[in-house]
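Hi support team,

I submitted a single chain yesterday and got back a structure, but I'm not sure I'm reading the token output correctly. Could someone confirm the output below corresponds to the sequence I sent? I've pasted both exactly as they appear in my results page.

Thanks,
R.
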Amino acid sequence: MKVALITGITGQDGSYLAELLLEKGYMVHGIKRRSSLFNTDRIDHLYQDPHHPDQKFKLHYGDLSDAMNLTRIIQETQPDEIYNLGAMSHVAVSFDTPEYVGNIDGLGTLRILEAVRILGLEKKTRIYQASTSELYGGMPENKNEKGFYDEFSPFYPRSPYGVAKIYGFWITKNYREAYNMFACNGILFNHESPRRGETFVTRKITRAVSKIALGLQDKLFLGNLEAKRDWGHAKDYVRMMWMILQADKAEDWVIATGVTTTVRDFVRLAFGEVGIELEFKGEGKDEKAYVTACNHKDFQVKIGKEVLSVDPSYFRPTEVDLLIGDPSKAKKKLGWVPEHDLASLVKDMMECDVSLMKKDIALLKAGHEILKQAE
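Hi R., thanks for writing in. Yes, this is the structure output for that exact sequence:
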């Protein structure tokens, strides 16, 4: 039985990857940070009785800032594969916490690599490092001849998050070459799902649209609507992570769909899932969106209602306007093909968030009923 160790297992990617590996018969160990609050919602369904003889899922308390702790966990678990998905991954927040991001996203990668080296596991343990499209910084002159970013495109990070991740990228490559480790970078472009964190723009949109459709919220506030991203489904991307560590040779890989969409169009798609059509008026910080049609019997929003405004406070100090990746290498050498397009991704997220908001309404009504009876 193969053994895998996943940092960041309580996150979007970690939870989907844990599911995938368990389906493939792995023993899966995950590292989670200690917190006074439970933050295991995405993986609670994977738990079994810890005394069950077939238990194949185990969590360990740890932190990417603690080298001794990481070394101990790696020594105890003796993993065949390590997936380093742990990071402070919110680009906008990285401007507020640059030192923390450098410590976790940059030096945290080094601590894992060094632990594997010190423990003499270079020949046994394969390492996947979650890199990011933010390495490229959206610089147009750095695209390939097809107008995409690939494995050979120069880097130009434009956030503390991107800068920290570029250290993680190069230290992984350095350890691969210096110590002959099977250590790979997956340069992931934006990937989303119903499990995406609520502060990320796609989930912020789908949650807000669901609330607006159900009458729980008046409107949505966003930053740069012109920003374009290459959005894929997290399920497709974690499958590629696994494929990278099954390859014959350790290399670096771009994981992307090769299709780009504006934030504005993502908003259109999300509203479209609840039968609402929009018209955008104005430009820049003055842009707003209004309802022009509402064609779903379960969701009735007044025609002409303003449902979106731009808030300049959400603009980043250095904005990346366009990111689009070229996954040709992954498709050609590993046979990776995404199973989800953007429309199905948005549909998946909207169905989940509408259902979630309806549950909140039901709980609220039940609470009111209990209070009424108590009176």
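A quick pointer for reading it: The radius of gyration is 22 Å. Let us know if anything else looks off.

Best,
Support desk
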